[in-house]
Amino acid sequence: MSTLDKEKSLAALRQMMVIRDFEETADKLCLRGKVPGGMHNSSGQEAAAVGVMSALAPDDVIATTHRSHHHTLAKGFTPKSVMAELFAKSTGVSGGRGGSMHLAGVERGHFGGNGIVGAGVGIAMGAALGIQVLKDKKVSVGFVGDGGMNTGRTWEAINMAVIYKLPFIIICDNNQYAVETFVGRVTGGGDLAKRASGFGLPSFNINGQDVEEVYKYTAEARERALAGEGPTFINAVTYRYYGHNVGEKGQYRTQEEIAEWRTSKDPIDYFTGVVLERKFATQQEIDDMRASVRTEIDEAVAFAESSPEPAISTITQGVDSGKLGIQL
Amino acid sequence: MEEIFVPALGMAMDSVVLLEWTKQPGDQVNAGESIAVIETDKTTLDLTAETSGVLGKHRYQVNDEVPAGNTIAVVLAPGEVE
Hints:
The complex is a heterodimer of chains A (328) and B (82).
Chain A: H1 6-31, H2 46-54, E1 61-63, H3 69-74, H4 79-86, H5 119-134, E2 140-145, H6 152-163, E3 168-174, E4 177-178, E5 181-182, H7 183-186, H8 192-197, E6 203-207, H9 211-226, E7 232-237, H10 255-264, H11 267-277, H12 283-306
Parallel strand pairs in A: 1-2, 2-3, 3-7, 6-7
Antiparallel strand pairs in A: 4-5
Chain B: E1 2-5, E2 15-21, E3 28-29, E4 34-39, E5 44-48, E6 53-55, E7 65-67, E8 71-76
Antiparallel strand pairs in B: 1-8, 2-4, 2-7, 3-6, 4-5, 6-8
């Protein structure tokens, strides 16, 4: 369980490339005004998302944060359907109603991104409680950023998961900056896993730039959860290459710091090296993979551009259970 | 050819006002230099070139309202024409 086999390694590498290309492309389109409401770019954070999803079963549940493109793509939603949602088109994962921050697909175990810091943990904890009540054989994963680590609801949810021994995994998608605030400046005690362990659950600080390490810790957490041993907290330390939101004029970190993470700790570069070293692929095959990803993202943009907007006649759909008969 | 465009920065930024052209058509432009100054609903800012070259024609006039995302001019590399 500690390493990814050839098939999973190549799938993970390609998925990370998809996320990177998607985000770099969407960022430019957002600056051109194509993404209503703006977006949060997850470039640099690919391994923490793909590593987690590599360890999950398709019907395991996730709930995520305002920065959720990488989680959604890694969960198996197509670049076409995610790009269309960013464009607020009817073919998007949320029918064009959610946009970048509310990507969801409940029937496929994606309980959504949202704009409330720390809320993904509470939503996913509720799903974990449901799984336990229904005696399902699956787990729920709640993503939270480092900014949500000082939020009360996060720890309320974790405490409840511990006392009920819920099949739950908390992933701190720790990109080290809560908008402009460096995590090291605002973390009492200085160690998030140590803080979490005070709530009585296995807690780990891990390298979020190593997809295999993230996979390994998540897979072990999933086994414990399925065995009835309760939740696990994983602090996956990663880094975002762009601003908090697209177009941000960031003055709170140096270009040297960004360059250092990009050049020496990049999750795609690192894992490409691993794949080559294990002879899972040749350089030519890696190049071909990257080219096929480029084509796929181009097709996603064309699909989003050409898709229709939601019909005005459907505007009341989705605001209630559908049983109230609200009409325009 | 680099397109100099008005970036959509805010959550609901629709358009900006072009306050000033800092480069004229045919001017040499160096990477990082300001091309124009725009005013959004919150601030004024410089639109800068990422590449060096020669500025093409002004596609808007001073005081024009420019929709976010629209190109206001291009920077041409040697041999390129607009």
